[in-house]
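Subject: sequence -> structure tokens, single chain

Hey, anyone have a minute? Need the predicted structure for the following. Not urgent.
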Amino acid sequence: MKIASAPLSNPALHAVVLTQDNMSIPADLDASFNGALSALVADEKFKAAAGSSLTVRSLGKMGAQWVGLFGAGTGDANGARLAAGAASTFARKKGLTTLDINFQGGGKAHAEAIGEGIVAGNYRYDRYLPEARRTAALESFAVHGLDAPESDLLTGLTLGQARSLARDLINDPPDDIYPETLAQAATQLGTDRLQVDVWDHDRLKTAGMVGTTAVGQGSDRKPRFVHMTYTPAGESKGNIALVGKGVTFDAGGLSIKPSGGMITMKCDMGGAAAVIGVMSAVEKLGLNVTVHGIFGAAENMLAGNSYKLGDVLTFNNGTTVEIHNTDAEGRLVLADCLCYVGKMDEVTHVVDLATLTGAAVVAVGEKYTALYSNDDDFAGELLAQAKAAGEGSWHMPLEESYNELLKSDIADIKNVGGRSAGSITAGLFLQNFVAKGKIWAHLDIAGPAFLSSPQKHLEKGGAGPQVVTLLNWLRSI
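Reply:
Had a minute. Here:
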């Protein structure tokens, strides 16, 4: 998209953002319609709720083809994001390529949110749709009335595009995205400041990555391990590791899923997709922290050599794990990655992201990420950034007494703790592989990673959760 430096003279869609405290339509615009827009607001009882809209054809009364009134709620940055997203969603629905937004008030945070919302609302995954079912994307837009420079809008576009990359990877069919091609998606980001190291199956085995090799051994497409490293141009103010679950398709292994539960399992690499999305933007945003993007990639399939219930795996930190369910595979891949990060003394903070448990979906649904952490202050930072980014996160307990549910008769722990508190015991399982002294958070994105229906300005399908949250947290360091 291109940003116009001045209001567009003949946009396809002219959008006016209203707030609950400012419901007045610009006088010249209302006069063009002989007061009909004000009457429409009254007739429809439009209250400017965030993300709400009223749209009408201009019928030649002004240069724009369409005129839209979009609600921003209280007028905070989240409201601005949803209003811009709603306008952009409408534009994409109608195939409108130019958009002019009138937003009165607001500064840097609003500008970034608007840029991000425009990208998110305009996103569609239509790679395999026939041309007749596609609609044109926005080509240019203008936002006026903000007290912020164009660079803040550009930052918002960068945030939105990072999320879009994660959405593309999640939405791609499993025959397109498998361990090798997911690793290639990371490799394509490589620059002088962003180095990408990819391990093949043989190197994984040699390095003792027992979880990733076990999960992937039932597939003809062998697993990969990826380590992306971003080094800032100036002095680094921190050293952070982001770890993603990259199960590119999850059939459940020998604990096979039913067909209905398998149909969306192309999304089971949502954590790795989020890590790739974040890493795609770190250099563009000029972050002043060292960031490691790490993920293991595997297909969890069925074959004569699939890993089995009753197997015992010995991880690189010495922890032994008895397999009680091959469909609890993501935590085994993450355990490898967390052991790897544990040997990186320079890393102080670790965040892992995973579509880990159906229990998280039951607990908090599709609108929330279940957040676990060994440090309440760190959890608070991530929660605050999620709220600012308009993403739902909920701090869940790491109840120590539930460790009893993970005890094994023949190994240190089992890979499942039973039906009760399934998301919590998954977090407790991962904690066994977090090195002492590292501040850690686990984000279970099983709900918001893949939406079953549209939510506000986000279409159904891959949603790329926590990408913007994590980028904004990294920017704050």
